[in-house]
Amino acid sequence: MDQLVLFVTLGFAVGAVYAVIASSLVAVHAATGVLNFAQGSIALWGVWVAAELGATGTLILPIGSVQIADGPAPTTVAVAIGVASSALVALLTHLLVMRPLRSAPALSQVVASVGVMLLIVSLVPLRFDTTGAVAAPILPSGTIEVLGAQVAVADLIVLGLALTVAVLLAAYFRFTRWGTATRASAEDETALRLTGWSPDRLAALVWFTTGAATGLVAVVGSPSIGLDPISYTFYVLPGLAAALIARLRSVLVAAAAGLAIGVFQSLLMMMSTYDFWPVWAQAGFGETVPFLIVMVALFVFGRSIPERGGVQTLRMPPVRPPRTRPVYALVVVAATVAAILLTEGSWRFGVVTSIIMMLIALSLVVLTGYLGQISLAAMAFAGTGGFVLSRVTTEYGVPFPLSLVLPALAATVLGVIVGIPALRIRGAHLAVVTLAGALAIQTFVFGNPAFTPYEGNLIEDPTLFGLDLGVRSGTVLTTTSFALMVLVVVGTLTWATARLMRGRTGRSFLAIRSNERAAASVGIDVAGTKLLGFAFSAFLAGIGGCLIGYSRGQLSVESFTVFVGLTLLCTVYVAGITSLAGAVVAGLLAPLGVLATFLEGTLGVGHLYSLIAAIALVVTAVLNPVGITGSVRQASEHLIHRRTTRAQL
Amino acid sequence: MSVLELKGVTAGYGHAAAVRDLDLSVKAGEVVALLGPNGAGKTTVLRTAVGLLQPTSGEVRVFGRRLGRRVEKNARAGVVLVPDTRAIFHQLTVRENLSLARRRGDLDIDAVLDRLPRLAPLVNRRVGLLSGGEQQMLALAKALLARPRVLLVDELSLGLAPLAVQELLPIVRALADEAWTGVLLVEQHVDLALATADRAVVLHHGRTALSGTAAELRADREAVRKAYFGDHEEDELVLAEDGAPLHA
């Protein structure tokens, strides 16, 4: 019994952070209609600012720093400034990023908030010394006895803070005129303006307040939870799960659900110490809980979760069915062959990585750009391909190219499973499911020693008709034969995708993206087509994952983390998510690709890659939603139109 | 003194102008009926007068000053629009809707409910559960609470039973008479509009086709008919028994 109580209370600190994030997500959604993926990152920044102040007395800013005290700053000062930092980051996120996107499609809002999340996560290791940092105690360190178990007073205080925040937020919405006006703005912003209220100011107040509240609970809870450059960021997923259980309506239910998830994860940890608990469920099982909750919550409540009213929604960036122009294709292939033959070492590796990442980017173009389904799980599908490749080549000796197809089919199955929720939900909610799914796959499958051994996942080199297609040969980092094999595989699949998108399937995708009901009314099987989209996209990503596997020779989870996936989404969005050309450009810009090689090898600023990608994403989402290729196309069409008009005159 | 003045206003949507070079003014304590067929530009005039739409040329002046771009600020300054969508919040209760409209120094909610006694027993009911007439009453109550100096009303009679309309229009009239509010009333129900208003303007294709006192227009139905249909003499305006215009 005392052990049960102990583990229940051990879940309080993390559960409190989940609770405050969940209640903040509900509040921000009520005020702006945005699902803020960056809420965890907002807490992360405050936690590190407070920790640094507590340790050295230095206030770290995104650029520059200020010495507040000669030695460690007093705890109250460190906490206050940490909380203020979180509040300020939240307010700036609203003013600079989300407010300009108020009438933008869900995709733009999702990628913008993901961009802010990546921006903060990229900034933390650059601005803070994250190795071996420890959060100094903030709250009393004593314990009290509850039902025979010694419970930390600090954990109870953090829990009390989170619940107080939830009660205050609920009271604000229920009993104050400003809160009532915020609820009204969720229904009809124009009507609220006509009533004399500014929805922008109400939203700014909610962003600021929830940023401060999230920062407060996270900063105060950080000595119990620990300092980590990433983990707080992903606390947004249990937070989202809890918010969805509350149907994005009730702050109190969201907080209670967040706390329950934290306690449940702690109990799972306790269970994993028992003999009867299976080995495969000992690692990462707690992280799959939010995914399962999100899936169930969205399936059960999917249609009763409120959508934003009153604001005119802008359209997604325009799409044009791809045209297969042999001359252009030949020029691109010839240029790529030349790039392969004329480069060596890390540059050739960069070229090959770009070609592979182009294929994974293409999977996003198909699924998100053409079919309109926001997926944040592309790298998880790729990783599945890579890890299955390791098994089938080393354990079963499956020969190339069958060794590409089988893992890709495994990824396809996973793609369909993650895609099933898309039959009932769409937009930002689908992004939540796919992100939760990606994190569950990363921790439960890739990071689980029962599935992926500690000694690494070796991959046999591919051979075809006795020809060695392996990536390394002696001191050569990337062989020409391997690079050309990658080009042939990716080129063939790109050509096939272009054909598919030009035909009936592509038109069905576009019809569903445009209007699901209208698509169904003209006889398109919406459910089947959506699953086909997820399956095809996961297949492409799976092949891409296999090629990454072959290019490394040995796989680790680092190649396929959720962050790599999100960074790839950034690059695809920046490049232009609605065109094949966008996939090509995204390949060049992708992690470890040509641009990354240039930044690392030529400029020596490779460590800034994630930061640059995140900034580019946020700026693109706000200022140029059609991406690089879209704006190039618009500019060229404008020129052609001017020339034609002049010629006619 | 004119509380609302439109000078040479052209406004519309994208490249399409719905109102062209329009001059219009409303004095304090005056009710001006804005009439015209569908697509004449009546709603566009109201949206421009409250700042929801910016004129492409010309200007809107309220109390002698140029109208600002921020709708909420205009509303707080006393320019209140009751749109045809009613601008009420269905998820909130009647009292919550009214509390949003009330500002410091404004009328008491109970004082407004005295004028609209049918609304009084419904104050704690969610607005989505009210009838169309009750919702329209609430929209008007919200406007009254804000003590408007310029009241813009769009299609008060839309979807309502004649009895409900007869209950609401006198409240608008009383507001002009007692609080010296300038009212611009868009109404399809020609007879009721002319019975309530001091003056009337008939729009056709975004331009003034006819204007005069309400009494003059009531006396000259033929002129109103022509103004409604422009030069299309073959069309005939038939006023139904309740006064609403119908095509023959």
From TrEMBL, chain A:
Membrane topology of this protein: Multi-pass membrane protein
GO annotation (BP), single: amino acid transport
Organism per entry: Mumia zhuanghuii
Taxonomic placement: Bacteria, Bacillati, Actinomycetota, Actinomycetes, Propionibacteriales
Protein name: ABC transporter permease
Keywords: Amino-acid transport, Cell membrane, Membrane, Transmembrane, Transmembrane helix, Transport
UniProt cross-references to Pfam families, sorted A to Z: BPD_transp_2
Family: Belongs to the binding-protein-dependent transport system permease family. LivHM subfamily.
Keyword flag Transmembrane: yes
A GO-annotated cellular component: plasma membrane
GO molecular function: branched-chain amino acid transmembrane transporter activity
Domain of life where this protein originates: Bacteria
Subcellular location: Cell membrane
UniProt main location, coarse: membrane
Transmembrane residue ranges: 6-30, 42-64, 76-98, 110-128, 148-173, 202-223, 229-246, 251-268, 288-305, 326-343, 349-367, 374-392, 404-423, 430-451, 471-498, 563-596, 608-628
UniProtKB/TrEMBL annotation, chain B:
Any one Gene Ontology BP term: L-amino acid transport
SMART domains: AAA (SM00382)
Record-linked InterPro entries: AAA+_ATPase, ABC_transporter-like_ATP-bd, ABC_transporter-like_CS, BCAA_Transport_ATP-bd_LivF, P-loop_NTPase
GO MF terms held by the record: ATP binding; ATP hydrolysis activity; branched-chain amino acid transmembrane transporter activity
Keyword terms, alphabetized: Amino-acid transport, ATP-binding, Nucleotide-binding, Transport
Matches recorded under Pfam families: ABC_tran (PF00005)
Domain ABC transporter stretches: 4-230
The family this protein is said to belong to: Belongs to the ABC transporter superfamily.
PANTHER family, per database record: HIGH-AFFINITY BRANCHED-CHAIN AMINO ACID TRANSPORT ATP-BINDING PROTEIN LIVF
The protein, known as: ATP-binding cassette domain-containing protein
